[in-house]
Each structure stands twice: as structure tokens, then as C-alpha cells.
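Question (not urgent): is this output format expected?
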Amino acid sequence: MLFALSRPVALAGLALAFVLALVIRVLAIRVVQRRQVPAGWGTPRRSGGKLVDVRRDVDIFGVVAAVVGGTGWGKKVEDSGMHPAPVRVLLAGPIAVIVAAQLAFLAFVLVAGRVPLGQLDSSSVLRGDLIGGTSAELFLLSLAVGLLCFGLLDLVPLPPLDGWGLLRHAVKRPGTGFQKARHWLEDQNVGIAILLAGMLLPLFRGLPLFLFLLDIFTLPFLLLWG
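Got this back:
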């Protein structure tokens, strides 16, 4: 978001997108946990009646990534030690945020009409590097892209993202190599270090790795609405 300081409207859209994404993800996780948690697996997360509990639901490193890179992530879903959260719990958050992004894109199309979004890079939106358009259009576009990028980033198979839990489910019989990787990525916080480096350090075309990948994976959605 720091790159968008010169465009207050875009900055407001990105900031709201991050906050909304955190709230939507947490609510989706709670709904699925309370309705479908299997016997023997943990308990639904509680927040003492708060919509979002900062200590339980907000990851400070995710906030740092959002401030500098334009999007970030929330706190890891609680698991039962050796076993990750159920697949439906892990999918609930990113899917709900991606669906919310589509509603924001719909609002953008209703305001701006059919705009060739396929010619736009999501990384440019995350950095506030937008040209033309009314304030309402810039705000809605930043909101939609911010939500979409949060949801897609959450599917990356690195801790503490939900995609890491999905990868653990996919590996039915983890060997010694996977267990060592898990130790370093989770227990030694190497996963967070990789995420931060991938969000902050320029690598491809002057872009950090994950912003470059987000440009690729957001393209189908931009083409759909453009």
C-alpha cells in the first residue's frame, strides 16, 4: 500500500480490501467450523464475541506484506497438532474472499462499464499505479483486485497460509524429507521468511515473485470481467 500513497482513493480501496478479506475469511472459517467440524478435531475458534480478534486472526507479518506489497494474509487456522484443519475449513476462507472479489468486480462493471481489464496487471493495481478513471472506479477496482489477490495468495502452499494445510492433506504419507521441510517452514518460520521475500524483493520484471505470480493467476478473472 505504500506505493499507493500518491493515489489516496486507490489506497483506501486496497486498505478496505485487506480489512474486509480478513473479516470475510474469519467469518467463513467460523461458520464451517461450527457446522461441520468432525469429532476429535479441535474446537471452533472463538474470539470472545469480537468480529475479529487481533491476537487470534491477524498475522503481523501479513500486515507488513499488505502495507509494502499491497496484499497480505491472516493468522494460521488452528489445527490439532499433527493433523491440519479439515479441507473444507481451509478452503472456506480463500473461496469466500474470492467470491467477495467477484461482487466487487460486478460493482466496478456497473459503474465503469466494460473496461479492458485483461490489459491491466494486478500488481499495478496493488501499487496504486493506475491511470485515468473516476474516483469511484479507481476505488472499486482497487477493492476488487485487493480482495482477489488476498484470496489467491492464501492458496499458496506455504505456512501460515491455508494452502499449506491443503498441501499437507495432499501428502497422504509424509516421508522424512517432508517432515524436515515442515519443521523448517513451520517451526522455524522459514515459510514466513519466504513469503515476505516473495512479496518485497524484486525478481521478475522488477516485481517480487508473488506479485509476478498474482499477475498470472488474476488474469483469467480480469479477462472475465473485462
